[in-house]
Amino acid sequence: MRVWRRLTLGLVLVLCVALSAAVLAVGCGEESKDDGAQNGNGGEQKKVTIVFTAAGGVLQEAMTKAWIEPFMAAHPNIEVIQDEPNENAKIKAMVEAGNVTWDVVDNGNDFGIGETESLCEEIDPKVVPMDELQPDLFKTTGHRVPCFVYATVVGYRTDKFGDQKPTSFVDFFDLEKFPGKRGSLNWPAHGLIEMALVADGVAPDQLYPLDLDRAFKKLDTIKDQMVWWTTGAQSEQLLADGEVSMTTTFNGRVNNIKKAGAPAEIMWDQFFMLADYFVIPKGTKHLKEAMELVAWCTSAEHSAELSKYIAYGPPNVNAVQKVGPTVEANLPTAHAENAVPFDDIWWSENLSTVYDRWQKWIRE
Asked: Which CATH architecture does the domain made up of 48-149+275-338 adopt?
């Protein structure tokens, strides 16, 4: 009897040990399976894919080299794929439909302010160095941050006016002293209206609110000499081909054709210093990773990298000195004392009204 009990107890102990080992093995297997699902093969962190959207062309190519590729190299868990172009209407449609597929968007100065703030996530100042991003020049609003500084300038042909060269917005409107066609973006909030007012005698610091009647009256004086463009590449081509003797354009575009040998120059005596802005569409599924990308591109360490590939300046005040004197001479920040104010807030509140009038004037 005692022998049977001992045998029975021994069998029970063996069974218990075996059962415990099995449970432990199953438990460990389940835990490993969960880790594998969460972290990927070999315990690595699961890769997240985010979408970066910009205007395309040479600018997006420069952003890719300066920021996107180095960011991915430093963040192997984040893959950045790209889309273009950056359409405000598409952001609005995504957010309102609750189907946001863009995570970080490089946008113009007409988005992320006023009514469009609600379409953007709040930028976390603990992650993004907002206090370093030219706070005295650009309004961040908390829903957008400047990603690069550029200028709307007058680009002109150096072979069209003899020994003379334009030095003010007045000269853009003087067809006798500076003959030839004029180019400009077919969009009211590009600076041409402000240029007309300054050329008509309005002091740059007294521009806003814009006197539209006075501006359009001045614009009438050169309307029959205007050639309208819709992309930066078109403005380059117009100036490079000599189809226009002067055009409003972006400083980087003039530098492009100068490098290619075109007789062109920038009028730095009067211009508009502006910024493009990063926004994160409201409802992104990858807010953390999107914020990391914005922080990387605007940091003191990486903000100036873009200037190596295109003549736009870093918004981070602690990065300007990293550009180098040769490059800096071609950046808007080197000519800041000549910049004419441009009021993003006024435009955000009045764009639709001015746009309707602009379209009517273009068609007349």
From this structure: 3-Layer(aba) Sandwich (3.40)
